[in-house]
Amino acid sequence: NQRWILDRRPAGRVAAGDLRLEKQPVPELMPGQILIRNVYLSLDPSSRIWMSDEDQYMPPVEIGNVMRGLVYGIVEASASDRIEAGKLVSPAFGGWETYTIAEAAMTRVIQPSAGEALSDYAGVLGPTGITAWLGLREIGHPAAGETVVVSAAAGAVGSVACQIAKFDGCRVIAITGSDEKCAWLRDEAGVDGTINYRSEPIGGRLDALCPDGIDLAFENVGGEIMNEVFARLNDFGRMVVCGLISSYNLDGPAPGPSDFGRVLMRRLTIRGFIASDFRKQFPTALEELGALVQSGRLKTRTHIVDGLETAPDALNMLYSGENRGKLLLRISPE
Ligand code: NDP
Questions:
Q1: CA of 323, closest atom in ligand 1
Q2: Prediction ipTM score
Q3: What is the pLDDT of residue 252?
Q4: What domains can you pick out in the chain, each with its CATH number?
Q5: What's 116-175 look like in SS3?
């Protein structure tokens, strides 16, 4: 078994020496356990949060432990009568490793329908699709005719959020970091307007594209992008705080808007959420997402990088914006 060990807490982006790749024999299974050959490792912005010891929504990975990650793989051996060898599965949590030993009772069996791939279950039919759905259905409640702004809009969560808001009859403005991603959002995801925050003035473009202000913000980035959106929220506007990726490589608290008085004057609702708090809604989310994928209405992109040894560099792609869609590491063949 090859696995990445967290050796020290990164400063800034993950760098050489923060993690170490080691080889260990695969231990014997205990009763109730299964051995999973990992096919995909999900690389998520939160991976970097778990490497730090700042205040966060779950315990950080301890120094000297295997790096935590969501894995999707095939059962190679089973000491449980719940799940037999050969099944596609995803345990509650795995690691950055070639094999994961998991409790069968804590493991989900995946049965892709025709036209679905295992990789979809790590994205649109898994955590990131569910997150987009929850942010809108449980928190943001978009209404037809409203103006919705989504940041990190071309990513795994953002691209699904843009499209669900469009299906709901909203006018959707998408913020992202390249002309290629803007074109995809316009031509494939069908958004009404795009802003390339690297080459265009964010505030000026928001003024031009949202002449009647912003009703709902789906915030994935924080920092300057969030501030420009916040400053244009209408009376009774809502901001769904899904992520603050621009601050994950920083030390200290994420910067927030300086004009907090706007929350009062505009009677705003700002609400953060973590998808795993809404487990009861997962089946409803997956039903809607599954139907949208099956019908071909919901467009997604998956970005696959090969080889466990590339994991730290691949993770950094999320912070440089090199990923086009849901970022996955392929550890072994399907
Ligand atoms: P993405 O597929 O969106 O990849 C991350 C993207 O963020 C990059 O491609 C890049 O796109 C953008 N980005 C990175 N750094 C910056 C920056 N400094 N300024 C502006 N944009 C930046 O990842 P996910 O869809 O997995 O995650 C999106 C967000 O959702 C994250 O904030 C994540 O933490 C959050 N999340 C929250 C969950 C929850 O339960 N609340 C669950 C899952 C994810 P670009 O080219 O546009 O710059």
A1: 9
A2: 0.99
A3: 82
A4: 2-117+301-330 (3.90.180.10), 127-276 (3.40.50.720)
A5: CCHHHHHCCCCHHHHHHHHHHHHHHCCCCCCEEEECCCCCHHHHHHHHHHHHCCCEEEEE
